[in-house]
Amino acid sequence: MSFKKFLVIALFISAMIAGALSFYASSNPDGLEKVAADHALDVNAKDSATSDSPFADYGFAAIDDPRLSGAVSGLVGIGVVGLAGAGLYFWMRKPEDS
Amino acid sequence: MHIPDGFIDAPVSIGAGLLAISAVSVSLKKTRGQLDSKTAPMAGLAAVFIFAVQMMNFPVAAGTSGHLLGGVLAAILIGPYAAMLAMTVVLSIQALVFADGGLSALGLNILNMGIVTVVIGWGMFVLLQKLLPKNRSGLITACVAAAFVSVPASAAAFVVEYALGGTATFTLSAVLKAVIGVHLLIGIGEALITAVTVSAVLSARPDLVYGARKLQAASQLVITNNEKISA
Questions:
Q1: In which band, very low, low, confident or very high, does the pLDDT at A96 lie, cut at 50, 70 and 90?
Q2: Which of residues 153-212 of B touch A (CB under 8 A)?
Q3: pLDDT at residue number B225
Q4: From CA B35, how far away is CA B19, in angstroms rounded?
Q5: What is the rounded CA–CA span in Å between residue B99 and residue B110?
Q6: CA-based Rg of chain A, rounded to a whole angstrom?
């Protein structure tokens, strides 16, 4: 398999997970949230300073439909992480490759 | 297992932040100038894939879910230093854009999910590679064990931080038992996802798996020897 083909397939799988499959993810609290709630560790927890972000909690504030809203959020995440990752790693690459 | 704002006091959050910054700067130094035209895009891809899979919370027990942490997966695919950078990218964007994990807790979250998982998991992986057979099943076994252990290790780091700077009163032994118990279950999911992903990449392009470089070198040696014998 060519490297280009590998990258395209892997990005497609990532986009499908973040954009479509994530709708079916469990919405129960994760292990840490559950234990924190059970043992009242979270009594002083505050909303994140970024909780008014349009993409807070992996939704998209401008869209009401939960499936579409989550899909937009997931794909935006893929894009932002991809750009940040690419930027960082191209800065890190060998001088002779640039 | 992202820690929100207000869980852990400022001194411990700052302390964890300083530890995280030290680990990230070591990783930057170690990675700088080391990535080539294949390993640089692989590192970005690992960050993207881990972001996506972290969205897939899976059920672990009544009313509780877990998600991939990804530190060990990243370390095996792209090496431990690039992995710590990839995890830092993912966790920072989750906190900044998706309000997942508090901003004041970012250092804690990078330390627990991006550094502890990689250091403990990669250490375990390297150790097991020495003990296990130098073949594909040995490699996958090492993957499974390292990924599994990284989750309770990360959870234990949280308990230490909470014991030092928690903002509510609690019984250490009860919390330790509950946190480690549920994260042993989540660790099984982590091990499965890590093993399946590494196996898939090994099947498609074994040369792209950092943790399999020794395996690659060994199999090339065998081929070279065979050629010599047949010649």
A1: low
A2: 155, 158, 162, 166-168, 170-171, 174-175, 178-179, 182-183, 185-186, 204-205, 208
A3: 59
A4: 25
A5: 15
A6: 18
Residue B61, number of CB atoms within 10 A of its CB: 14
The pLDDT value given to residue B221 = 63
Test the B interface: residue of A41, A43, A60 with most B CBs within 10 Å: A41
Euclidean distance between CA atoms A49 and A64, whole angstroms: 23
Per DSSP, the residues of A27-80 read: -SPBHHHHHHHHTTTTTT-B--TTTTSTTGGG--TT---HHHHHHHHHHHHHHH
ipTM, interface predicted TM-score of the complex: 0.95
**A29/B contact by beta carbon, under 8 A:** yes
Q: pTM for the complete prediction?
A: 0.94
* CB-CB neighbors (< 8 A) of A97 in chain B: 36-37, 40
Encoded amino acid at B10, one letter: A
Q: Return d(Cα B93, Cα B54) in angstroms, integer.
A: 13
* Helix, strand or coil, per DSSP, at residue B8: strand
CA pair distance B47, B54, nearest whole angstrom? 11
Determine the Cα–Cα distance for residues B122 and B143; give it in Å rounded to an integer.
9
Q: Give tens-digit pLDDT for A12-57.
A: 999 999 999 999 999 999 999 999 999 999 999 999 999 999 999 9
Position of tokens 């950078």? B85
